[in-house]
Amino acid sequence: MNTEQERATAPAEDVSRQIIAIAAHADMDAFQALFQDYSPRIRAYLLKMTRNAQAAEDLMQETMLAIWRKAGQYDPSRGPASAWIFTIARNIWIDAWRKQRRPELDPNDPALAADPEPDAANLMEQRQSHDALHKAMQTLPQEQVDLIRLSFFDEASHSTIAKQLGLPIGTVKSRIRLAFGRLRAALEDVK
């Protein structure tokens, strides 16, 4: 190996050894050397990504902390240490970018509030509607009651009902329409 190749591989081997030392012994000297070598590079990389010096600094600090924590996950056989380091930096930048894009939840948002308990008048109205529907359903033939139950209470699709009952889908649709027409007329009579 010529001297130029030796100079190119020596720093990469040093970085690998530093990461392994951090993982094995929580070696602060190795981490300090790694920090001095890589923090400016990571900051420059993240500055290109964020275009914000403070954000780049913060993300670089997060990256170095992640390197300290994840040093045990580094596998030199999977690639160079620099690729591992910059992958961590990239993933931290992606997480920060996604977090920034995600809207904050407002706990006072009406869409997040639970539905209020119905008052007595609403409960009575719901009960009367339920009773009226029940009476109207009793006036229908059992075949039509079954179709309405399958379609709207069990939420089965028309094709599922057709298969289940062994009927053509067009027949199922027309029978459901007929059942609704009769149900509507029965509800008007009940009122």
UniProtKB/TrEMBL annotation:
<dbReference type="InterPro" id="IPR014284">
    <property type="entry name" value="RNA_pol_sigma-70_dom"/>
</dbReference>
<feature type="domain" description="RNA polymerase sigma-70 region 4">
    <location>
        <begin position="136"/>
        <end position="185"/>
    </location>
</feature>
<dbReference type="GO" id="GO:0016987">
    <property type="term" value="F:sigma factor activity"/>
</dbReference>
<dbReference type="InterPro" id="IPR013325">
    <property type="entry name" value="RNA_pol_sigma_r2"/>
</dbReference>
<dbReference type="GO" id="GO:0003677">
    <property type="term" value="F:DNA binding"/>
</dbReference>
<dbReference type="InterPro" id="IPR039425">
    <property type="entry name" value="RNA_pol_sigma-70-like"/>
</dbReference>
<dbReference type="InterPro" id="IPR036388">
    <property type="entry name" value="WH-like_DNA-bd_sf"/>
</dbReference>
<dbReference type="Pfam" id="PF04542">
    <property type="entry name" value="Sigma70_r2"/>
</dbReference>
<protein>
    <recommendedName>
        <fullName>RNA polymerase sigma factor</fullName>
    </recommendedName>
</protein>
<keyword id="KW-0731">Sigma factor</keyword>
<keyword id="KW-0805">Transcription regulation</keyword>
<feature type="domain" description="RNA polymerase sigma-70 region 2">
    <location>
        <begin position="34"/>
        <end position="102"/>
    </location>
</feature>
<keyword id="KW-0238">DNA-binding</keyword>
<dbReference type="Pfam" id="PF04545">
    <property type="entry name" value="Sigma70_r4"/>
</dbReference>
<comment type="similarity">
    <text>Belongs to the sigma-70 factor family. ECF subfamily.</text>
</comment>
<keyword id="KW-0804">Transcription</keyword>
<dbReference type="GO" id="GO:0006352">
    <property type="term" value="P:DNA-templated transcription initiation"/>
</dbReference>
<dbReference type="InterPro" id="IPR007627">
    <property type="entry name" value="RNA_pol_sigma70_r2"/>
</dbReference>
<dbReference type="InterPro" id="IPR007630">
    <property type="entry name" value="RNA_pol_sigma70_r4"/>
</dbReference>
<dbReference type="InterPro" id="IPR013324">
    <property type="entry name" value="RNA_pol_sigma_r3/r4-like"/>
</dbReference>
